[in-house]
Amino acid sequence: RDADEKRSDWVLSLSHTILLIIDSLLPAFSVTCDPLPGAPQTNRRLIAGYLLHRDDATSISVLFCELSVHSSECAKLVLYENELCNSAVTEISITESSVCCDVVGINCSCFVVDRHHFATQTSSERKLWLRALSNVKVKIQNRAPDPTDAELQHYRTAIRANISALQTTLEPRIVSDALLARCARKTSQLLAPA
Questions:
Q1: Nearest partner of 16 among 24, 27, 5, 4, judged by Cα
Q2: 88-94 and 100-102 strand pairing
Q3: For 132, phi and psi rounded to 5 degrees?
Q4: In what order do the strands lie in the sheet with 45-56?
Q5: Looking at the whole model, is its pTM more than 0.70?
Q6: Can you give 28-73 as a three-state secondary structure string?
Q7: Burial code of 120-135, b = ≥16 C-beta within 10 A, e = fewer?
């Protein structure tokens, strides 16, 4: 019994440390579903926010990611340099065969889209991203027509309600500086279209 408690404490401490590191790397920016004024490329936005992206086995990037509604038989998850959405780093096509799943773990905030690994600030935010991705995939799988502007507003209203609920559970940030050293981005693997 004592060994089980010690192991449980160790696992919880480790998961808390990982979340602290993730939180320290991501900007204090909340998830949004609203397009950017003056940026027409964001007009079909469903959900957007900063995520950690695993570039390779030794590096990660902090990117502003945006999931758009489906159009025909696919949707896009665009990874930008920042929230201004001026410079796309890469674009991931979401199709009916795309793999979108969570990473199982204690308080885990990680998820996978095809070969791309992401981390959010909280496990609740991860659930929100996965729900949006799942809903988009269902629309694509069922060959749903492209959403009208009214339908897009309805989707955003539902997402906005989830964002508000998520914000009520956020705890204050413990650290204000990144707990890992910044390095130059390795672009060779990230720029290849998915």
A1: 24
A2: unpaired
A3: -65, -45
A4: 88-94, 75-80, 59-68, 45-56, 116-119, 110-113, 100-102
A5: yes
A6: CCCCECCCCCCCHHHCCEEEEEEEEEEEECCEEEEEEEEEECCECC
A7: bbbbebbbbbbebbeb
Rounded to 10 degrees, what is the CA torsion of 26, 114, 123, 159?
Answer: 90
Whether 47 and 132 have beta carbons less than 8 Å apart is answered as yes
Identify the pLDDT of residue 111. 97
Residue pair 88/107 in contact (Cβ under 8 Å)? The answer is: no
The pLDDT of residue 189 is 47
Q: How far apart are CA 147 and CA 71, in angstroms?
A: 8
Q: CA-to-CA distance for 147 and 69, rounded, in angstroms?
A: 8
The candidate with the shortest Cα–Cα distance to 18, out of 117, 137, 122, is 122
- The answer to whether the beta carbons of residues 41 and 174 sit under 8 Å apart is no
Contact assessment for residue 15 and residue 105, using Cβ atoms and an 8 Å cutoff: yes
Q: What is the mean pLDDT of each successive set of 10 residues along the chain, which is 194 residues long?
A: 84 80 79 95 96 90 95 95 94 96 88 95 92 96 95 96 84 62 57 46
